[in-house]
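Bumping with the actual sequence this time:
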Amino acid sequence: MESVELLIDTIGEALADGFKRVKLKYRPGWDLTMIEAVRSAFPEGVFHIDCNGAYTLEDLPMLRELDRFRLAMIEQPLMYDDLIDHATLQKQLRTPLCLDESITSPDRARKAIAINACGWINLKPGRVGGLTQALEIHDLCAAANVPCWVGGMLESSIGAHHCLALATLPNFHYPADIFPTERFYHEDLGQPAMALCAPSLMALPDRPGCGAEPRKDQLAHATLEQTELRHR
C-alpha cells in the first residue's frame, strides 16, 4: 500500500465485508510502525505477517517485538534454506512461525517438523510437486500436530480448484490464499472462473473431477507455438 492510512482503510473494508483474516506483507521500512498502527485500529482482528525471507537472526530484537501484537503467525521470516535458523528463532518467540518457501518437498517438511522450525506450514501444491506430494506433507504435519493452510501461486481456475479441494482436508486450520479470478486476471485460462459465493467463502464443485476445465479459445489465443505428438 502507498500509506498506512490507505492500508487501514482497505483492511476496514475487508473486515466489514466478512473476511476472516488478513495477511500483511512485512519488510524493512514497512514493519513495526505499520503493524502497530494496524493492531491499534483493529484490536480484535486476526492478522499474520508474511516476510518473504527478508530477515536474518541479526533482526532478532525486532522480531521479538512482534510477540506483543498477538499475530496468528509470522510467515517465512528468514531465507528459504534456513531451517536451522528458523528453529533457533522459533525458540525465542511466542508467536508461531509459518514456513512457506522453505517447504518444497515432503523431505523438507519432515526435517522442519523434526527440529521444531515452525508452528504452521503453508502448503502450495505447485511448489511441492503436485497433489501426491502435498497429501504426503499434509499427513506428516497431521501426525506431528503441525497445522497447515493452503497457499496459491497465481494458478488458473484449474490449479486453484485443486487447491480448493486440498483445503478441505482435516489438517487445514486457517483460511486459504485462494482468490477470485478477477483479483489477478482479466480472463482466466480455465472455466468456470473462481468466484466467492459469500464473503471469504468459495463453494466446492458438485460434479466429479477438479471442477474446472481449460478454455480452448483462450489457450489458442495465448499460444505462440504448438507441437503435435502422434503415436506411430
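The C-alpha cells above came from a reply further down the thread. The chain has nine helices and eight strands.
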